[in-house]
Amino acid sequence: MSADTKMEKFTHNPEAMDLVHLLKCLSEPVVILETQIPLDRTVIEELKESLSSAAGRAIEIDMKVVPHLDIGARLILGERRIDLDLRRRLREELETQFVAKKREGFTTVEETAAHLARIIEKTEPGLRIEELTDIGRVLQVGDGVAIVSGLRGVGSQEVVCFPRGVYGIAFNLLRDTVGCLLLGPEEEIEVGSVVERTGRLLQIPVGEPLVGRIVNALGQPIDGKGPLHTLRSRPAERIALGVVKRHPVIEPLHTGIKIIDALVPLGRGQREMILGDRKIGKTTIAIDTILSQKDAGVICIYAAIGQKASSVARVVNTLQQRGAMDYTIVVVAFSNEEPAFRHLVPYTACAMGEEFMEKGGHALVVYDDLSKHAVTYREISALLKRPIGREAYPGDIFYIHSRLLERAARLRDDLGGGSLTALPIVETLAGDISAFIPTNVISICDGQIFLDMRLFNEGFRPAMDVGLSVSRVGGMAQTRAIKKVAGHLRIDLAQYHEMAQFVKFGAEVDRATLDQLTRGERERELLKQDQHTPLSLEQQVVILYAAVNGGLDAVPVEQVKAYEERFFTFLEVHYPDVLRSIRELKDLSGETEKVLREAVLRLTRDFLEKTTGSGAATPVV
Known about the structure:
The chain is of the alpha/beta class. The chain contains 19 helices and 22 strands.
């Protein structure tokens, strides 16, 4: 068959005309051919010649054998699939010819077989373009959702197109109707409007150009700094990585908060939930963790879910003032936006973080907060008339959050060694962590940081309850330097809380118990930390070392904060090598510990002389 004849076949076939358009629009003249079995090279060359003639340029074919393919062969052109369905054309030809011949009657089995062989031999493979232009009609629209009839072949989470360029997501698939979440103004859509499939999932722009920008749930900039110049995109939702591709979480993620890094350490690739009542400091912990990633090579994504514009502006202002926007992406869905945007924003943020993870980098994503996300999903389910479950939440709310949080991971070294760490925030009512959403997210995560309102009202901030807070990664994600001092700190605090109960009832205590109470009281005071003042690793190590080794035992409790501030300045001026050694080695060597012990003795003596007039200092053990 000549090239002109082949071209004529394409131009007279309406289905093939779509193929010609796809071929001409390809950015790279390469198509992928998937087959159940290897094909002869001659067949591939003939197909290559036909496609090149149709496209008017040379087309290359990348052959892949896929044994589980559900059809004979398939061409993949970008995001479109074209089935080379040999079976359908053959079946149609066999049915037509066999019925016609049957009327004449067959004499022998051999004659029947020969006739079938002639049909198969002369039947040419046909191109069947997969039907992606399934049409539907709007039956009902309002409150950010649309009920559509038709769209028989639409898939879950597939993007559909409404009139005037408004898009939606096929969300609720029923026998006769499809419930769609609208990604644009519903005022542009009327009952009876035509809805078309797009054949693709929602794609989110990703990559370096988003760093430092504020975008909405679709990845579109809303900060007035111009368009995004990114050529890469990823689906908002995807299946989480399997266990085989993951690496154990052993690399620390420094938060800069003493009580967290010492007692419930975070690791890169971990899922650590922050929960507590309203206005208790949950977002502050997440923001301080972002501030601590400066110069750490971690890209941070802050996802604001259903928040007021003033709250988001306050967070962005804090990040800008401290230079954290240089490595942070802010993804926002305001409380007055359509439910689809509030539902999508955490998945969008996760997709952006996965891009850095799979390139071998490290990312941190904060979901603030998943309680509002659960309420949004409950709202969507009510609008789509889905059945309700416990606390009026739909039964699949656990799956909604698990498929999001399971995407946090640490990749194997041979896959790049990247990581995506998740910090979901969940709100409790009156400290009730046994409510439906908190217990769901606790079971998905690798630990939780619980903030107690009683501690908050007592002035202990961050108000972390040491008893109810836990990290299932634990010491595996701690540097050796922190681990050496954190073990003593945990024991001291446990003994302090146990002994303090007896003192409340006026019980008499011996000298050893009194010493435990004295040290525990000062260590507890030391763990208080002002917001947005994260400490470096070396600062945490030296001050905790001083506390657990008795350097603060003689310091009045009200002077602990002043002692801490002076201690950092004292070391930077007189013992800079101590800080440098800890920063570079991430460990407390024997020589460094010896010098640090001398520094603690010297500073404690000088500090007590100036504050209390006494030169006696508690010796460091």
